[in-house]
């Protein structure tokens, strides 16, 4: 008995020593790794940032709301390197806008971005899984529940507008969205997807098969896997002020044969805009075209592209539109119905052989460009980051790994040599730095669709932001020009002004063939869900003369670099204010 006890005691002592040794080794390895990373950041800081230069604020951290830029410190202990200086301070005049300084400074930003991005992705809340067995359709839903129906994403029966929200989708939200767009039915699937239409699905399913809980409303049913919970919302349309989304598109020359051009028509005495728009909405067409007492419904097509508007005097803008000049011209209105000819999207069926980046400085319109590319090509775009707000609104490539090669191109704001050389080609989107800085400042303080307050603009944070981000705007372009293998330069302003021609260039660069009608559909849906509503006018000039001098020098540097690579220079509007 004593011998057995002695053996057990000896074994436990050995095990205890082994555990102690492994723990000590683990701690030592972690300490060495931390010292090595700290040394790397210090070396980069000493090599790239002068003692009086503020560090750029990383885009991903401010987007995620993880940390206030005022609390970020550089790896160096100098208090002057805090983001939040007392004044705009730059290196010597002969160095502050040189490409070498800009590139070295950008490498420091990338190092900080990598560390923070790991923290950002690890903090994302896991999405809840659906599949609840028994839930009730709550009484507060105003629409009439029609039942559970089969849903095929490739051949949808509710063919109208589509919305996604993987965190806040509710039955009421879907119903209101469809009612405002003049649809009669709202259907929910997968707990987070909303579909609108005017025709009730034909294939009914068992009630228990609609078992997905709404992401934004516990205890409520939002369809299921390939199943739709359908509500009739026609009675809600009056309360939704259905005509507020009817938009006057202009006066256009009528095509030679309206009956062949438009698939639906109506002749009605005393025809009004409301009557024509309602008729076309029920037929699920995005355009209502009026000529005298005639109403036509359809889409923008090659026969009727809505590109060259006529003089408004040629058409009557009165409500009854009874005096359109001699029948040669017609009034065109955009109905609340979404043009769905280009809304179908999917992942690539096979891995792409060419790895393409969609690169831009933050605030340069990358999200808008992704919207255009996805609807033009029919394929999702990916992202180097994960933005939950974009994923919730239908950018499903956000959640796909950025190196999966299942997306047509990958969004990135990165600009290091290693990151650039991972891509075979890139669309480099450039926007006026004045507009880019303001757009990114708005996003930083008010999200994708909001505006920073006057208090934000007049605070100390705005000059610090300009001081940090202006150099990043320049270095981003310079590094892509230096290390990019095959580039297509697209200026945001040109894309906005000449959407179809520039979008054709982008699609051809991506080696995708699209039809003219699909491009016209994209033009009809050009704004997407991430466009700020109008330009919020400020009663003061946000840029001081010192800021303008700094930004203008960066503009000249980038313009010279573009011309040196045989690209057209920056648009003339960039240079001076």
UniProtKB/TrEMBL annotation:
Protein name, UniProt field: WSCD1 protein
Highest taxon in the source lineage: Eukaryota
Keyword hit for Cytoplasm: no
Record key words, sorted: Repeat
Any single Pfam family the record assigns to this protein: WSC
Organism: Rhipidura dahli
Sequence ranges assigned to domain WSC in this UniProt record: 142-234, 245-342
Family, similarity comment: Belongs to the WSCD family.
